[in-house]
Inverse folding.
């Protein structure tokens, strides 16, 4: 019985490993034309290669760990991104690049092109909850790069629980960045949903409330700030 369990486990691990191909430099050379076509925006050439080698959509560059999807996103090829996503399985989209530990969605968030993010999130909503190597969710990357359209889209689809204090600094980081950038709409909404985020320390170890105090000139009078501070601490 024990042998059967181990055989089943081994088979499952083997199947999982086959989902992500990470070849050596020599083996990777056979897939290089596909990556080059994607980089250059030549989808017809890439598509013809994929017909012959369907596994290529989950092949990773041996040096960067990137898939063709990472490369297409980085190059801003929206149409190719959509094509690649349609050819990939859900868990293929969760592959992280070696440098920065970023999924293709995380790169899209830093690029600020909502169309790319939408097609990936539609296929796999778990991507919204996968942080990079700096423990930043895609929505946080969008805020840090000042891409407000992307940030608002990601805020509308990111699970609210991912932004709560017990899940880390993500929510507080968003609020802090909104205050600094004078983009208050989402920060107010998030604080209303969870007032304690105002006194949760973000990545810089500074709370949103401390940043708000420094930005008090944004308000017509200090009285409003004092009222807001008391409201947060009373909640």
């Amino acid at each position: 019985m024990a042998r059967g369990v181990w055989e089943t486990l081994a088979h499952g691990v083997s199947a999982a490993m086959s989902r992500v191909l990470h070849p050596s430099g020599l083996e990777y050379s056979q897939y290089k034309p596909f990556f080059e076509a994607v980089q250059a925006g030549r989808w017809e050439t890439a598509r013809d290669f994929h017909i012959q080698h369907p596994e290529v959509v989950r092949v990773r560059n041996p040096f960067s760990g990137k898939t063709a999807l990472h490369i297409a996103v980085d190059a801003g090829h929206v149409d190719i991104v959509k094509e690649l996503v349609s050819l990939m399985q859900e868990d293929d989209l969760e592959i992280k690049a070696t440098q920065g530990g970023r999924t293709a969605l995380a790169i899209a968030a830093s690029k600020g092109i909502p169309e790319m993010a939408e097609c990936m999130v539609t296929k796999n909503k778990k991507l919204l909850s996968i942080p990079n190597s700096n423990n930043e969710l895609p929505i946080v990357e969008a805020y840090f790069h000042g891409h407000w359209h992307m940030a608002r889209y990601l805020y509308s689809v990111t699970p609210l629980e991912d932004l709560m204090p017990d899940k880390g600094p993500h929510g507080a980081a968003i609020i802090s960045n909104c205050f600094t950038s004078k983009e208050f709409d989402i920060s107010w909404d998030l604080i209303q949903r969870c007032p304690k985020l105002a006194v949760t320390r973000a990545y810089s170890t500074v709370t949103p409330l401390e940043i708000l105090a420094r930005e008090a000139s944004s308000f017509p009078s200090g009285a409003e700030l004092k009222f807001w501070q008391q409201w947060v601490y009373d909640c």
User: Anything to note?
Assistant: The first helix runs from residue 2 to 19.
